[in-house]
Amino acid sequence: MPAYADAVGADADALTYFVGSIFFTGASFLQLLQAQTPAGDGGPLRLVFWGPRPHDRNWLAAAVQFPGTLLFNVSTLVALAHNLSVQQQDRHVWRPDVFGSTLFLVASVFGVLAVAGVPRWRRAWWIAWLTMAGSVLFMGAALAAFVLPSTGDVIDLRADLAGTLLGALCFLVGAALLIPFPRRAHDRHERRRPVRQPVRHARGADPDVSGGGDDGAGRLPSRRRGSGPGR
User: Fold this and answer.
1) How far is CA 209 from the centre of its chain?
2) Is the pLDDT of residue 148 over 70?
3) Backbone phi, then psi, for 141, in 5-degree steps?
4) Contact criterion met (CB below 8 Å) for 174 and 126
5) Which has the minimum average pLDDT: 5-19, 28-42, 64-78, 122-136?
6) Which end of the chain is more exposed for a tag (fewer CB within 10 A), N or C?
7) Among candidates 73, 61, 80, 62, which has minimal Cα distance to 14?
């Protein structure tokens, strides 16, 4: 953002992009580990650092997205250098950015295909489409950031900044939706409340079906021998 760059300086602004890309890559790697690690059966979970699952669209999305984040690392790292020529910016900053954005688009397509048939009110559906929207915005920002050889300026600085900001916002909201909602206190109480066992009668006993059943203390009302109307 221009206001942030003016406040902290161009070097700190570029460093912010690079540090942010490192967190982006770390999150993408964890997503890949999760996609290729089979669900456990209650025992210790064993992480699978490389386990291709080409028939799993969730794994394909994570596997394609991860190298895209590495390309963003390259792009933002080289952008820290000073006095780059137009050709150097094109080769080492813009191209990795475009290639990474392309991989993000492909990964988003796999993510959307993975939730095909999922109702729109489910969080998985929103996460997939927010990721797609963020990838489209990132691609738009990358295309707008091409440096024109004739002038040395980008095609559209506002589109570049807006696409980057809104795309990052889409990814942020999608990541927030991955956080499990806490259970309500009422639900936790219901789970902890013991289940009252039914009263077992002795063989041949005749429970009082006319007296309303339970007397409020978990027992059925008993009949006293010889008791009855008029006594």
Assistant:
1) 55
2) yes
3) -65, -40
4) yes
5) 28-42
6) C
7) 80
Residues 26 and 22: their CA atoms lie apart, in Å, by 6
Closest CA to 138 of 128, 130, 148: 130
3-state SS assignment for residue 194: coil
Whether the per-residue pLDDT at 34 is higher than 90: the answer is: no
Length of the chain: 231
Distances 45 to 36, 39, 56 between C-alpha atoms, Å? 12, 8, 20
Q: Could you report the per-residue pLDDT of 151-197, keeping only the tens digit for each?
A: 888 999 999 999 999 999 999 999 899 887 665 544 454 455 555 55
Predicted structure pTM score: 0.72
